[in-house]
Structures
1.
Amino acid sequence: MSQTEWIQRGKNVIMHTYNSFPVILKNGDGMYVWDENGKKYLDFVSGIAVNSLGYKHRTYIDQLTKQIEKLTHCSNLYWNMSNIELAELLIENSGFDKVFFCNSGTEAVEAALKLSRKYGKLVHGRECIQIITMKQSFHGRTFGAITATGQEKYHKGLSPMLPGISYAPFNDFAGLKQMVTEKTCAIMLEPIQGEGGIRPVEKEFLQNVRNLCTEKNIILIFDEVQSGIGRTGKLFAYEYYDVQPDVITLAKGLGGGFPIGAMMAVERVAKAFLPGDHASTFGGNPLASTAAKTVLTEIFEQNLLSNVTEQGNYLKERLLQLQEISKEIIDIRGVGLMLGMEMTIQVAPIIQKCMERGLLLISAGSHVIRFVPPLICQKDDIDAAILILQDVLGEE
Ligand SMILES: Cc1ncc(COP(=O)(O)O)c(C=O)c1O
């Protein structure tokens, strides 16, 4: 059966929520994936900032295989050693005290929103329910997370949204401060807005927000679903800002391709959750936890954080060179292997042409190309990607 026939079968039975490219990916190895017809692609998407270790990673396969043979799922009615070890690894390498495991980014955000309201009501009284997020943010697709997302286009046809969530201008402290009242229980932001166009937060803004939250006992949540787990060259992007949040949300790269999410909090906040307040059947199951444990161990043992910094700097340098010869490129921003290239023109046709030439790229909004390759990316991969991109831009 041809690729086109397979896709038609898919269209017959899968809800049309995605405008997928007409390609079926079949297998991968390192930085590359192959489609059903055997065409090879260099992958600078990594399943939307997920496949931290690339494809067919030997240790990842071995560890997951061993765990499948022992136990894949047991629910949280019982303890399992994999998620205890994973929680310890996350806690030892961050400023948090407790973890809640779930299966995706949106669930990690839901957990953070619920924890914030619990904490607000406990500490400041029943009326303390307001959560402030940022304009242009993206936090996920479940009702709480999509309400928290500060982009109207995602709210279309869904009203009424969850009450008590409002949107502050990003990187504008005065604008944010005037929205804070005694009813505010949390402020949530992405240290680098991902879907919103790879927009890093400004250090001064973040430090001001931290001070305000400390002064008023408001929870500061960083959504690091996209920027976390080594993507920026630090384990967490917040490490660049000398600012410690009270709560963090993680997913995407944490499982390296296996679904897992996590919400971590400092003890003062974590203890607002009591038994029965929140749960997930699959959350932190042994297989998912093994995947995440393997990703973290590889990041540390293979010095992937310094690789991300080195390759990220190189990729940025090469993109800046491209900017010198292409008047359509107006900005290069981001850090590590989470970079964005803003253009004066729509980027969808460029991404399409790059794919035809064997390079996978993704947009972040209509005018930004996003570069989020696996953390194992090397200079040769970057040179190969730039060559294709340069060719395509030359034709614009
Ligand atoms: C910052 C951020 N938060 C939350 C999410 C939602 O994650 P998921 O798609 O795993 O639910 C995303 C996904 O793009 C994200 O970038």
2.
Amino acid sequence: MTKIDLGVFMPIANNGWIISKNAPQYMPTWELNRDIALYAEKIGFDSLFSMVKWKGFGGQTQHWDHSLESLTLMTGLAAVTDRISIIASVQPLILNPVVAAKMTATIDQISGGRFGINFVTGQYFDEYAQMGLLPEGYANTRYDYAREWTEAIKLLWTQDKVNYHGEHYQITDCTSSPKPVQEGGVPIVCAGMSERGMAFTARHGDRCFITGRDLADLKDVSKRAKQVAMSLGTTMKTDTVLVLVIEDTDEEAQRVMEDYRAGVDVEAWRNIFSIYAKDVEGASSQTVLERAKRDVFFAFLPIAGSPVTVATILADLAKEGDLDGLMFTFPDYLRGLKKFDSEVKPEMRRLGIQFSSTTHEEEVA
Ligand SMILES: Cc1cc2nc3c(=O)[nH]c(=O)nc-3n(C[C@H](O)[C@H](O)[C@H](O)COP(=O)(O)O)c2cc1C
């Protein structure tokens, strides 16, 4: 039996992870996030997770130009939920470890010990540059910042008086009290994908958050992360995020996918490319269009099909990729979560997948 955790990757920025005029267009409101969180908790999901984003990509769909802030959104969700884990994203350049230690202790108290952080060195450095916070050469030094930051916060979570003198963070005679409810501090998930990122996660984090170029690559990345941990004499769990497009039949799901592709926001993609991969700048518009059509789903891999097809692919990922956690985004979250719960989850059970937490109804049954 393969056991997995189920998580929801919350819609903290507008329109989620599909860059298309033909996908549902929505704002990332508190009410939407709250309703999704309460429903996910009710149907037995294990965690709620939000990314951190400070700058969007424009285009016709204004992709991610509208986003809530991760720590404060998750604090609100911690207050209205009872059981589910709550994970917010934190970047070392934005938040000093002393401030972060107090915030994490506060949110851990509000949640009754259900809080964790996703610690990311970041990807789109424009976000930091717009605040005047981008150090020269950060691409090469980011994991040095990350190491010092995690060393410092772990001291603040556990020691009475902290003195820490690193190259990037200096903490003098500092007391952080109260400590988090969870003994030793809150869990740290890290989304490092490079060799260095994975080694950092194995040494300083609790779980490794990954994605892949395609499903085969995702399985390889998961196994590679575990090997990196093993070579360092430790173990590491892996989680991924997927965009689930669940329709009644495979044909209907493919029709929806074609529709999304037809409505791709090329301008938003062009902006993403010019920020992220400078080498794509100057590429012909045809190249950008081709790439955008293939990648209408941003960052995370889509799985589209009938409930049986989606369940079969997810079960295979969990078993063959040795993944420990699956997180989902949906074009329409509440509709997608309902379909997942009533039609995909039972099928995954039949395929030998166990779920870490069960709903009250399941326990009674
Ligand atoms: C699942 C996942 C979630 C991520 N979330 C964020 C985020 O919220 N904010 C951010 O700036 N970067 C985020 N990243 C990007 C990471 O910070 C990092 O740049 C990326 O994983 C590349 O890995 P590397 O830094 O080891 O090369 C995320 C990456 C992954 C895989």
3.
Amino acid sequence: MTTLIVGGNGVTGSQVVEQLLIRNQEVRIIVRSAEKLPQSWKDHDNLKIIEASILNMEKATLSNHLSGCNAVVSCLGHNMSLKGIFGPPQKLVTDAIRKLCHGLNEQESSNRPIKFILMNSAGHRNQNEVISLGHKIALYIIRNLLPPHRDNECAASFLRDNIGPDNHSIEYVVVRPDTLINEEKVSDYSVFPSPTRSAIFNPGKTSRINVGHFMAELLTDENLWTQWKGQMPVIYNKSAI
Ligand SMILES: NC(=O)c1ccc[n+]([C@@H]2O[C@H](COP(=O)([O-])OP(=O)(O)OC[C@H]3O[C@@H](n4cnc5c(N)ncnc54)[C@H](OP(=O)(O)O)[C@@H]3O)[C@@H](O)[C@H]2O)c1
């Protein structure tokens, strides 16, 4: 199976790459700069590194890179600097996944349906999830003050509302971790259809390697994929529940 990853050089994205390579999967990553990537990645037979900006890439070029892919993963996120948070592109994630889905729809591929995983956040409230009034007010303020949060919400909504859970071409899972932490090893984690705690007032923790592990399992375990496709699972480290 071949998976194209955007944001694959990010702290979480790189865990997804590693977890897929451990499973002997073919991986392609689109990164703005390959300079800081580990030499082991540059030498890896199963990893193709494409140095380009996803948002500026010509449609035909993207189409070439998508050709033969069975899955796409986005671990894109705004850099945590003033420029990354408030500067352009404010719709980084939404525009990138829209472009990728458009490219996938145009593929003359026999690999359908193509799996699409979007890294999102437990701070994003999916339709009809019950939250307190205080949480609603805080979300309203965050949404209007912080473009990256708005972008995350729009990206997830795009998959839910424009691709939809019954699409024959693209199947999606939106993975929602809570506060991200770094750990060396995969640990026990739990996955729920919706948050089990307030991401604002009582956040849980999710290690990035566990996100990588869950995404890789989704892509390689058909039963797990069937269980979560068309949904927005929330993942917590077990030690944080
Ligand atoms: N922090 C949390 O607690 C938390 C919790 C839940 C969810 N999340 C979500 O998870 C996302 C990923 O987290 P992370 O810690 O793995 O992020 P990260 O290490 O900052 O990775 C972000 C990725 O996005 C890429 N990127 C940024 N701006 C770009 C642009 N303009 N064009 C193309 N690529 C661009 C980066 O590439 P470059 O190296 O080229 O910049 C990098 O590959 C966050 O941004 C957030 O939306 C975060």
